[in-house]
Amino acid sequence: MHSSIKPYSYLALRLPSETLKIVQLVPNAVISIGKYGTFQANHLLGRPYNLTYEIVDDIKSQQHGGLRVVPASELHAEVLADGTATPTVEGEEDRPETGEEYEVVGEDGEVIMRTNRQTIDDPTSQKMTFEEIEALKKEGSGAGKDLIAKLLSSHSAIDQKTAFSLAKYTLRKTRKYARRFTVLPLDIPLFTEWLLAEKEPMRSLDLRDELIGLIGSWANIRCSASEPQVLEDGISKVGGGRWLVVDETGGLIVAAMAERLGILYPPEEDDSDSDSESEEPENPAPTTTAAATGNSASTTATQEAINDDVDMTAPEPAEAPSASAPASAPAPSRQPHHHHHHHPVPQSATRNTLTLLHANAQPNLSLLKYFLFDASTPSPSHPLHDHLKMLSWLQLLSPEDDNGYTEPERVPDDIIKTWKSGKRGTYFRKRRRWERIRAVVDETRAGGFDGLIVASVMNPVTILQHTLPLLRGAAQVVVYSPTVEPLTELADCFSTARRTAFVTMQAEATMDDQSISKDDFPINPTLLLAPSIQTSRVREYQVLPGRTHPLMTSRGNSEGYVFTGTRVLPAEGKVEARGKNKRRKLVGERSSETPA
Amino acid sequence: MATTDPPLSFLDPGDTAQAQSIAILHLKRDLLMPTRLQEQDELNEGYDEGKVTNTRFGSFPHSTLIGQSWGSQIRASAVDTGSRGRRPKNDKKRKRDEDENTDSNAPTPKTAVAASTGFVHLLPPTPETWTSSLPHRTQVVYTPDYSYILHRLRVRPGTVLIEAGAGSGSFTHASARAVYDGLPGDEVKAEGASSKKKQKKGKIYSYEFHEQRVGKLKTELYEHGLDGLVEITHRDVCNEGFMVRKTESSDLNAKKNDEPKAEAIFLDLPAPWLALRHLTRNSMSSKFLDAAAGSSNPQSPAPGGDLPPPAPTSAPEGDLSFHSPLNPKATIRICTFSPCMEQVQRTISTMRQLGWVEIEMVEVQHKRLEVRRERVGLHEEGLRGVTAMPASVDEAVSRLREVEGRFRSFHGKNTGADGSEDASGANATESKEGTPASTPATYVSKQQRQQSIRDSLADRKVFKEGRLVHRTEPEIRTHTSYLVFALLPREWTAEDEARCQKKWPIKEPRQPAKNKDQKARSGKDIEVDAGGRDVTQETQAANGQPISRRQMKKLERAKAKNAEREKEKAAESEQAATEPTVEDAGAAKADAAGKNVEEPESMVE
């Protein structure tokens, strides 16, 4: 995965200004990174990620000279040079003649640090004018390095600068004029960084990497190698790596969890091994990927129709392909794109699946386009095509009220034969759609999920009311919220006091559930074990020789909280905790010995 | 999987708890007890019920646990723990041994009888529950740290990870879950050794220099069914490197098989900078490595910095005997975990010299919150876990009035016996009629008041009362360690570049006129683009054109692009102005595809 840059993939460029820019690498296109210059996509295709390039095009001769890889030694040059002559290095021999500028002096007269006491705050100390800089930029050779050197040399007070401020000045000028960029693979950590820094973070509920990490870990997301176990009734299933997801971040949670399940990235052909040795898979790759990502409306639509049609004529569910591990899925590039027979039915995978519950008629998964997945016209070669299942809350709670769940009229075969192909196609497409929806809805309603992950603006109490019963025993529940209040309310539904009251009432009620009011107990508090809320934030440091400290500023906004708990199966009948004081039980609170 | 192998309880626990699998008995929050479920009591502890786990909430014979659904609430059993101890132990054991020899080698355990109180929840093990219940041998890498580290290291199903300093094994378990995509070896059985290469499976190569810890971890990993996924080696990696086996043979192919070919590295070592020398793509001269490892702040030696200088690897540049433990075709990501700043500084300095880039240092600050209902008010007087102070100014004033009235009546100022007010403290909303004139004649003692509060408690729903508040839990880990992240890009040679240039040829250079246009346009975009935002959209905005014309412009461009492709062969100079940027091409493509989902730009608008 991400071993080399593939055509039509989305990737991120980190510019000298530290901003991220996401581009799609369309072969032969020209990529513009604004003032830093332009280059051709073909300069990057097939190359590895994480290299830093310099645009070496010579503007004077109007030639696109291409890109030059900047080696690590050059990237670290300043710091490495600095490290040997760091200002904190003690000793007389380092002291230059202008010793009077050293201000912080130790007891024995030893110079410790140079200060800015002598510097004069003068905005005119840079002697180069704007016009001169612009002219130099036009000449621009050497990827801005000449310009930066010129700028430094024409600064009148450069010798007054302390080593630190000189480094800062150089860095500032480098950020402005260097024509470098780093190519980064678009994976979840980078995507999150981009969403937070460049997009509207509230759209993705301010999710940060540390919180996504916590969500994934506590949800116990893992690749499952075995099929779900079918219970005695023959319908209900348990496990198999099936997770229930409520994602209102535009698809970020789905993408992050899919990454952990190994179903986010389309399989790459011979990722690591034969890539460099064999040269033959040149042509098929770009064409099919183009088709897969939907190059033109008409073809995609007809593909879908054909696909549906073909699937219908072969009624047995395509279990076999979906059962194979995602990593070993057939390489899509080998197949001409109009042969979709072998592709599994959409949303039909039996394990390692994410089942998305959405509040609108269509799910909002717009962010998944960066991972080459389009929820409305999914490409069959994408693992999410059959591993991501989607249904609305209406379909979950009251499927009879949903048109998609009602069976379309069945027509005898001999009548269908008389139809025109267009009408026949529509008929089969409708049947296929209904079968798909019915399968997903029935499977979801049967429950047995391995976990629940929620990142939603809806009240989490109402979500858990309906989803908690769908989870298997020991399933993990993880609810993310940008603010803490919805989660404290949720945790309060499972408070020890409430649970104790519930258990007592349940024992007294004897088969009469009516006396236990939904108002007092919105969710059965005995279904969730050890509810807890946590938050995490990383603090970033600058580590430079003699200049190590936390960053001066960072992003604020929502803190972000994660609620976790474990779905449990309460024992039948009344269960009394041990070590409980009779009198205190009468008081009905603070049952501290209750296993929680 | 052979029947003797313990089940893969961490990764695939199944529906019910099986014998031999690890189970976590959840006693209460932060009190978890791992136990290995056994049908037979191998230690012969002498319980009538067979193997029994005793907790502070009761005794749990394993016969009551095996076969139960995971997540079940399990009642404690009435187990005779007392008389067992009184019996002479040796006698008992000998007797048992005899029994086993003579009988069918399996004494049928007594059926457990449920106790009246006490229960636990039966949970399958997860890296999280294991981390909070494992036997501590070293400082543990906790969930907030390892979840972030694995996320940042891009550890996913199929990743090969090197972990040095396995310690207590918490990170080992978490990373095993992350890389798991089937056990290595499974595919060999299925498809033969020839296809092994293609079926790359995730794996952990774990190293630990403390022999006893290695032994314990090996046993644990075997019991947890993870021994196929984690290969643990007793090794001081700082001196001896990361090759899996130290093959002495000169056979290069044999050596090749010993290369872990890792893509991700986690170093939890006292001196990670010493291990970095073994994590290079090519052999480096030992002189350079020593210089690299020894450099940086000589006046601030880090803990562990006193390690003896490593033996020179004696590998001259370009030596064929050098084998890199890294995957040559992948970006390598590393994380080092060091509690001290001095360690961080030396590590980063060494990383810079060895060519690691994107070096970043962070610390994870994590806290858990406590949610409770804060009940304040005089009507709570005498109860537990509440604040029996006035909840409001009104309440304070009425209480003061009451006290004042009592004071007056005590001093005989009270004239009449017509005081009708109920002075029960439970009545928080005392009326203002409580003037001195109508002070209560019937004095209610503190005891009486509190008794009436307690009596009324049964009818109250205290779990809904009070204000819902949250606060940080009493103890927080303010510092665990500093995390240094860095990466090593794939090596890119001139030959690689030549191959790629052949595969993706660059089109002819652009015409001068056109480039000027382009320059002029991008000149306008300077601010916009430095902000990293969408160029096309911003340009339109700058031109004062309404955004709604976007679609039209896009279509135009798409047409122009097609036209341009045809014309390009003829090398016209006219088409220059319509040269598509990537956004344009992408937008045109999306447009043509007729997607009815929103564009990403419009999504954020």
UniProtKB/TrEMBL annotation, chain A:
Residue stretches of biased makeup (Low complexity): 285-300, 314-334
Compartment(s) of residence: Nucleus
Compositionally biased residues, Basic residues: 335-344
Organism: Xylona heveae (strain CBS 132557 / TC161)
Region named Disordered: 265-300, 312-350, 573-596
Composition-biased stretches (Basic and acidic residues): 586-596
GO cellular component, one term: nucleus
Superkingdom of the organism of origin: Eukaryota
Protein name (Swiss-Prot/TrEMBL): tRNA (adenine(58)-N(1))-methyltransferase non-catalytic subunit TRM6
Bias type Acidic residues, positions: 267-282
Protein's GO biological process: tRNA methylation
Keywords: Nucleus, tRNA processing
InterPro entries for the chain: TRM6
UniProt record similarity statement: Belongs to the TRM6/GCD10 family.
Pfam family for this entry, one: Gcd10p
TrEMBL record, chain B:
GO molecular function (one): tRNA (adenine(58)-N1)-methyltransferase activity
Biased composition (Basic residues): 84-95
Region (Disordered): 71-111, 290-323, 408-458, 503-605
Domain called tRNA (adenine(58)-N(1))-methyltransferase catalytic subunit TRM61 C-terminal: residue spans: 118-179, 200-281, 331-486
Keywords assigned: Methyltransferase, Nucleus, S-adenosyl-L-methionine, Transferase, tRNA processing
Basic and acidic residues: compositionally biased ranges: 503-536, 553-572
InterPro entries with a match to the protein in the record: SAM-dependent_MTases_sf, TRM61_C, tRNA_MeTrfase_Gcd14
PANTHER family according to UniProt: TRNA (ADENINE(58)-N(1))-METHYLTRANSFERASE (PTHR12133), TRNA (ADENINE(58)-N(1))-METHYLTRANSFERASE CATALYTIC SUBUNIT TRMT61A (PTHR12133:SF2)
Protein name: tRNA (adenine(58)-N(1))-methyltransferase catalytic subunit TRM61
